């Protein structure tokens, strides 16, 4: 009954946990990100999310699943400092989302790779550093590291139109990683890709995370298989106005190989999440 992930200790057989108030546990582990009573009403009166409470620890991968229009992107935009809550507070290690974004602590990956079509892979990836005034030598060194991570080191000079959909998304991920964010927000990043590419990118994302296990990732997906494969915890949202209806722990240690998808444990977790979504 905790707002904080207890996944490392929880057996998936007992994976369903209600949202509740184990405030004692919350005090013991300082979360990287906390949302307290966050609501958002747009100017036209649409209440997108209502009273969201969540605490996320460093190194967690938390997926958000829920019906279309339940406010997942709204929530992510507020966490990224791209919109303010109407009520409640969001805290990222003592900083506001706006401060964290300005300091490079939060990066955002969208479903569309949003690359500059006229610029090379290298220029696209280094753009955030250029905007923050980082010296060229440092930019190039860091680009080498992230392009290596996403397997695109040989494509530095390529233009986006010369890349496949999966490669464009890798560039987008590299661009998000180049500022060494503490928090990586991914809003349906693999939604437009075919299933095989999608699974390879899921594998690669976990491999990247193995190299930097302190990075915290929040992930929006409509795909329950993807959520189970990637996450330490799944936040299931209700219909609009969205709130966290249930949190489901995925107590399966990393590294999770490709074959995790074929285990009975995986199937059971998918079934559990599906059952919550169906209600
Ligand atoms: N700028 C805006 N002004 C008014 N209403 C908005 C605005 N942005 C989003 N909404 C509304 O807020 C609600 C939540 O939208 P949001 O995009 O956050 O949902 P979502 O869960 O990400 O949806 P999907 O899964 O379809 O991407 C929707 O009803 C949407 O129409």
Automatic annotation (TrEMBL):
SMART domains: AAA. Residues 1-20 are annotated as: Disordered. It comes from Cohnella faecalis. The lineage of its organism: Bacteria, Bacillati, Bacillota, Bacilli, Bacillales. Keywords: ATP-binding, Nucleotide-binding, Transport. PANTHER family: ALIPHATIC SULFONATES IMPORT ATP-BINDING PROTEIN SSUB 2, TAURINE IMPORT ATP-BINDING PROTEIN-RELATED. GO terms for molecular function: ATP binding; ATP hydrolysis activity. Residues 33-264 form the ABC transporter domain. This is ABC transporter ATP-binding protein.
């Amino acid at each position: 009954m905790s707002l904080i992930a207890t996944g490392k200790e929880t057996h998936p057989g007992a994976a369903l946990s209600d949202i509740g108030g184990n405030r004692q546990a919350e005090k013991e582990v300082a979360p990287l990100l906390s949302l307290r009573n966050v609501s958002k009403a747009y100017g036209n009166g649409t209440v997108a999310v209502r009273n969201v409470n969540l605490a996320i620890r460093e190194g967690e991968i938390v997926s958000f699943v829920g019906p279309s229009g339940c406010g997942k992107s709204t929530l992510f935009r507020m966490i990224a400092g791209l919109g303010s809550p109407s009520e409640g507070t969001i805290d990222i290690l003592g900083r506001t989302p706006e401060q964290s974004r300005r300091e490079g602590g939060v990066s955002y990956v969208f479903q569309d790779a949003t690359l500059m079509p006229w610029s090379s892979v290298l220029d696209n990836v280094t753009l955030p550093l250029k905007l923050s005034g980082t010296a060229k030598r440092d930019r190039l060194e860091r680009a080498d590291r992230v392009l290596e991570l996403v397997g695109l080191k040989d494509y530095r000079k390529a233009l986006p139109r010369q890349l496949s959909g999966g490669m464009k998304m890798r560039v987008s991920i590299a661009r998000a990683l180049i500022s060494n964010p503490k928090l990586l927000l991914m809003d349906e990043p693999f939604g437009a890709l075919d299933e095989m590419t999608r699974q390879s990118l899921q594998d690669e994302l976990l491999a990247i995370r193995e190299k930097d296990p302190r990075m915290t990732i929040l992930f929006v997906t409509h795909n329950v298989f993807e959520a189970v494969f990637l996450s330490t915890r799944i936040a299931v949202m209700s219909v609009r106005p969205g709130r966290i209806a249930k949190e489901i722990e995925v107590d399966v240690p990393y590294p999770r190989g490709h074959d995790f998808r074929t285990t009975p444990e995986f199937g059971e977790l998918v079934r559990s999440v599906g059952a919550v979504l169906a209600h």
